[in-house]
């Protein structure tokens, strides 16, 4: 069974361009929306995303809306904890496709890591 997990050095979720997420006001509190918008760099990427390492520089202290946790997704999106795994997988696939492409290395790595892609000896 596919199981969601964050795949290191992907960073697709760090592409925060608000034009890609027109419904931000529907699920973020006004203070969270202000924080979100303050994190968007000129290129649409989070200012905390280190493009060289492809990792978040504030991961341990990242905002609530950057966390894939049952209580956060239930509060923000109305996703029941039992539905979180499938919802998170679908969200990641959509975001990775939008940022990198549907057959990108990032998409292939994600699918392999969560258990929905082909398993091979090739280190993606």
Which terms summarize this structure?
124 residues, two-stranded antiparallel ribbon, 39% helix, 3% strand, globular, single chain, mainly alpha
> Helix coverage percent of residues?
25-40%
Mean pLDDT: 93
Largest sheet: 2 strands, antiparallel
Topology pattern, helix = H, strand = E: HHEEHHH
Number of helices: 5
Structural class: mainly alpha
Binned strand content:
under 5%
Sheet with most strands: strand arrangement: 1-2
Question: Overall 3D geometry?
Answer: globular
Q: What's the count of strands? A: 2
Number of folding domains?
1
Distance between the termini: 21 Å
Radius of gyration: 15 Å
**pLDDT < 50 runs, ≥5 residues:** none
Organism: Stenomitos frigidus AS-A4
Protein name: YkgJ family cysteine cluster protein
Q: How is this structure best described in words?
A:
By secondary structure, this protein is mainly alpha-helical. It has one domain. It has five helices and two strands, in the order ααββααα. Helix 4 (84-100) packs antiparallel against helix 5 (105-114). The protein starts with 23 loop residues before the first helix and ends in a 10-residue tail after the last helix. The mean pLDDT is 93.
Quick overview of this protein structure:
The protein is mainly α and 124 residues long. The protein contains five helices and two strands, in the order H-H-E-E-H-H-H. Helix content is 39%, strand content 3%.
